[in-house]
Amino acid sequence: MKKLIAISVVFALVAGAAFAADVSGEVIGATDIIKGSTAKSTYSDGSDKPNDVGAGGFPGGLKRLRLHASGENDDGTFGGWLRIEKYGPGKVGYDDGKPVSLYDNVYLGGYAWWKPVEQVKFRLGENADGDFDANGVTGWGFYQVAGDVGVPKESWGYSSSFFGGWSKNGGLLTLTPAEGLEINLGIPYSDGGKAQYVYMSSTLQIAYTAEGLGKFALTYKGGKGNNKRLKDKSAAGVETFEYDHDPGQLWVFAGLTMIENLEIDVGLGYKLPASGEGVEFNFPFDIVDTDGDGEPDSGKATGKGTIQEPIAFGLGAHYNGGDFGVKARTQVKLAGKYTITAVEAGGTYVDFDPAVPSYKIPMNIKFDVLPYYNINESLSFLFSAGVDYTAKSSNEGDKEVDYAKTGFHVTPYITIKSSWWAPNFYAGIDIRTDGTKKEKVNGKYVESKNGGTTTNWSVPLGIVFAF
């Protein structure tokens, strides 16, 4: 062990002499100092359990440790970046007598890059945070570090209409052939397999930044497509097949900055349909008979058909008037549909007769708003509020759970800042519901349109320090 440490120290000294290196770190502590819920549950005899006021739970203290290091050679042609991260608390535990807590939720990532000319950069590795995102204020930029801390409890729910970044382990080629123009190609080499499918699964983005106007980006995330391949052939000539239903996805983005102190982000996301044989369906109502009694009892089926995910439209805005500002974001998803024309049974497909089951995915609308006020150089007050609405289904199905859901959250919080990077202290009150309704039936609470919703509340607290 001593030899290993000595070798590591010598290597670090040599590397430090050969390359200019920067090292930084970050620690996040977070917990709910008190919390509660109106959720109802029952004892075995059907009577209601009391709702206790709680405290703590995950993360309960330590939420994240991070160490970063980056460097490059003198002429800027080679370099690298690495991250060591511990997420959540380590638990004391043993596996075959060996402690395992050191490795719980540990992330090791990084990449090495080569820049042969100013306009070309190629790297191998990964960045879990993602590269070349096109989401403006609607992604991490909405709550920023407060979202990492969990004050408020960010759900990152706008990726259908905005591209959140490429985070695969593989190769990333970046071309900058002209001022303002950037072309990124992410190749997921870690997926492995047939070269055709690895390269088909690449992500391509063409982005252009125009001074005085903003940023415009077109992103395409590829996939294997809709394929049917021979998997095996028995001596008796019986063939079995395997299928891919991995269509591509497209995002269009415009981040407009032509109005002083105002940023407007517009996004559109569209996923190509999964279709053909071997499509895995999960209808929210029963369509197939699995127990042979002649009545449908399951919504899960493999068959011929099409899954069309909803088209997503997004809009974000940030007005920064100095000490006062406001952020807002919204997303609408609509026009999604499942259609199954035949179901697989014993290696053959049986057509639905006479009706062809279809399911129109209900419209979903999300909206968040975040006004804020800097009381002084260190203290700020922010008020987060949002709604998540899913329309009632227009399909035949289980009427007891067929209702419009309206979730919401309200989270006023404060931050205290004593460093240049980000606020160091976070505290607030979080009140939220997902809109699910439950009713007591035969001594148990089950989802029902006639029931009541559950409201959860907490007082989250967070401390952040970066160096």
Give a short synopsis of this structure.
The chain has 467 residues and is mainly β. It is built from 4 helices and 31 strands.
Write the topology of this structure.
Blueprint: H1 2-18, E1 20-37, E2 61-72, E3 78-87, E4 94-95, E5 98-99, E6 106-117, E7 120-125, H2 140-143, H3 145-149, E8 170-178, E9 181-187, H4 195-200, E10 203-210, E11 214-221, E12 225-233, E13 239-246, E14 249-259, E15 262-271, E16 274-282, E17 300-308, E18 311-320, E19 324-334, E20 336-345, E21 348-351, E22 358-361, E23 364-374, E24 379-390, E25 405-416, E26 425-428, E27 430-433, E28 437-441, E29 444-447, E30 452-453, E31 456-466
Antiparallel strand pairs: 1-2, 1-31, 2-3, 3-6, 4-5, 6-7, 7-8, 8-9, 9-10, 10-11, 11-14, 12-13, 14-15, 15-18, 16-17, 17-20, 18-19, 19-23, 20-21, 20-22, 23-24, 24-25, 25-26, 25-27, 26-31, 27-31, 28-29, 28-30
